[in-house]
């Protein structure tokens, strides 16, 4: 169709709709608009619609969305939680799992299972109870760090004795948090440890400093102290440990001096407070 033909058809359509009138004055054609608003309406109606998305563009959009979801999942902090109390374990897993930036990849009910699951999943952060069957929290930390010295472990416990805090930090824990801490604090500690920070609350840090400044008991002295707590006499302790009664008395005097106590009863109480023994 020639342009002139298209123009004629356009003129006829507009004339039929009563949009303008055509007048001829000599060689000049004069077009008079009868309803300007109609022309505006027709212009709006004739505006080209937005083309539908092609199959290719939809695929590109879908692939971008899938990629963003993969990035989001990759950015999550992957956690292992270990606790021998089922209610606490499931509660922590449910609460932490609701966080957009966290994902629980494994749950363990004892220390040995925690090490096995850590080896399998290699989590970013591990949340461990201290007193668990088969292998306690200290043992878990040591074995995990033997597998990866950069492993990030948070101790989450009800015990805040000097010795347990000290042993946990010594084993390689990056944070020590009590179970009565607010949820916001727990989540904050997880994020900080994942970022490479070490987190110990001020009150617990003071106990740690006190423990580190004091003179530590030797392994043999701890053995003697544990038997004292069971009510053994010096002679019975010597028999159990295959040492002389005189040597036992020497160990007992050293224990009294290091714990700053004057009797067996005081020594047992002080050792229990510090976490050296468990009654």
Identify the notable features of this structure and list them briefly.
Rossmann fold; 279 residues; 5-stranded parallel sheet; alpha/beta; two-stranded antiparallel sheet
Any overview of this molecule?
With 279 residues, this protein is α/β, with parallel strands linked by helices. It folds into three domains: 3-45, no CATH class; 70-213, Response regulator (Rossmann fold, 3-Layer(aba) Sandwich), CATH 3.40.50.2300; 219-274, Orthogonal Bundle (Arc Repressor Mutant, subunit A), CATH 1.10.10. It contains 13 helices and seven strands. A five-stranded parallel sheet has the order 4-3-5-6-7, sandwiched between helices. Strand 1 and strand 2 form a beta hairpin. The longest helix has 21 residues, at 55-75. The protein starts with a helix and ends in a 5-residue tail after the last helix. The relative contact order is 0.07.
Task: Reconstruct the topology from this structure.
Blueprint: H1 3-16, E1 20-25, E2 28-33, H2 36-45, H3 55-75, E3 77-82, H4 86-97, E4 102-108, H5 111-121, E5 125-128, H6 137-147, E6 152-157, H7 162-171, E7 175-178, H8 183-194, H9 202-213, H10 219-229, H11 234-241, H12 245-259, H13 264-274
Parallel strand pairs: 3-4, 3-5, 5-6, 6-7
Antiparallel strand pairs: 1-2
Low-pLDDT residue intervals, each spanning 5 or more residues? 41-48
The CATH superfamily label of the largest domain reads Response regulator
- SSE sequence, one letter per element: HEEHHEHEHEHEHEHHHHHH
Tally of contiguous helical segments: 13
- What can be said about the biggest beta sheet? 5 strands, parallel
Please tell me what the overall shape is. Answer: elongated
CATH fold category name of the largest domain: Rossmann fold
Q: How many β-strand stretches?
A: 7
Classify the secondary structure makeup into a structural class.
alpha/beta
User: Largest beta sheet: what is the strand line-up?
Assistant: 4-3-5-6-7
CATH architecture assignment name of the largest domain: 3-Layer(aba) Sandwich
* Overall mean pLDDT: 79
Report the CATH C-level class of the largest domain: Alpha Beta
State the end-to-end distance.
Answer: 103 Å
Domain count: the total is 3
Helix percentage range:
55-70%
Cα Rg: 39 Å
Strand content: 5-15%
